[in-house]
Amino acid sequence: MAAVLPSATREILLADIPDGLPGPEHFAIMQKPVPVPGPGQVVVRNQYFLVFPGLRTLIGGHADGVPLPRIHAGDALFGPAVGEVVAVGPGGPLRLGDSVVHMLGWREHALVPAAECTPLVNALPDPVAHLSSGSAAYGALTRLAEVRPGDTVFVTGAAGAVGTLAGPVARLLGATRVIGSTRSPDKAERLRAELGYDAVVVPGSAPIDEQLAAAAPDGIDVLLDTVGGEQLAAAVRAARRGARFALVGALAGQLSPHRDGGSAPAEIDTFRLVNQSISLHGYSGADHPEVREEWTERFGEWLRSGEITFPQVRIPGMDRAPRALQELFEGRHFGTVVVELPPG
């Protein structure tokens, strides 16, 4: 069963393995026939797909331990997407017109097992909000760092997809003071003016330790870290006794042109970890499968009440997707970055 479909569709392939960070020249947009669904399969016309830094690791070839497959030359890219079911194979619970989330973005039409599609619920007022990275921030702040009333929270990479939600969520969970970091002075101002960050550290403008000391003279209670590297090391030095650190990313290594995307070494003071009773945990959504549903419900409530916003950038058209990925690596955007495909 199918709606009227075009005869051809397009997808974005990795044309060549880059030496360093990938650029638009490493990708190709290829045309192919629209797939026909078999038993238990559906064809989804994608409406939005996520541009996310994890592609760097999958393309770099060092994805050991990552719960996603490596992307080889000639493979189509993939990632979270929102779309409409436009063809249905025999069997399965989905119907024409259903809106779903799935993992085969970076193409106009996706052939997906129905079991790997998640129907959209009415909890979120905007379908693009289903592509937010807020579940990781919320899970880390509630399951690992356990933000408490009165806490001072430091969020690294605060202008990214995780950070733009992590700070406001920390505040809603009871944090008294929320500090962020970004390398852009313009983004620092937006974090303060639009998202309520109390202070922002701008690495490169002055020593991080000095900036953290000024922003949190009594130290930090919680770290939500998306960067690693020197910012993680500085946070250890600024931590109060009993501080809880939750690591959700390692962009300092992942987006370094001198590394392979699969490692992010950091030199931290382990004596201070012990002496200050600092806990440090890495967050994986797979370890907390209940978080996504809980996050979706609370996110929807907060969006509707106006207690939180969802900063995002929508890039129009498939042709601009490779450039959008490069711009993400370069730190040009604020919040979540999605590609929006035209209807049809």
TrEMBL record:
<dbReference type="InterPro" id="IPR013149">
    <property type="entry name" value="ADH-like_C"/>
</dbReference>
<dbReference type="InterPro" id="IPR041694">
    <property type="entry name" value="ADH_N_2"/>
</dbReference>
<dbReference type="InterPro" id="IPR011032">
    <property type="entry name" value="GroES-like_sf"/>
</dbReference>
<dbReference type="InterPro" id="IPR051397">
    <property type="entry name" value="Zn-ADH-like_protein"/>
</dbReference>
<feature type="domain" description="Enoyl reductase (ER)">
    <location>
        <begin position="23"/>
        <end position="339"/>
    </location>
</feature>
<dbReference type="InterPro" id="IPR020843">
    <property type="entry name" value="ER"/>
</dbReference>
<dbReference type="Pfam" id="PF00107">
    <property type="entry name" value="ADH_zinc_N"/>
</dbReference>
<protein>
    <submittedName>
        <fullName>NADP-dependent oxidoreductase</fullName>
    </submittedName>
</protein>
<dbReference type="Pfam" id="PF16884">
    <property type="entry name" value="ADH_N_2"/>
</dbReference>
<dbReference type="InterPro" id="IPR036291">
    <property type="entry name" value="NAD(P)-bd_dom_sf"/>
</dbReference>
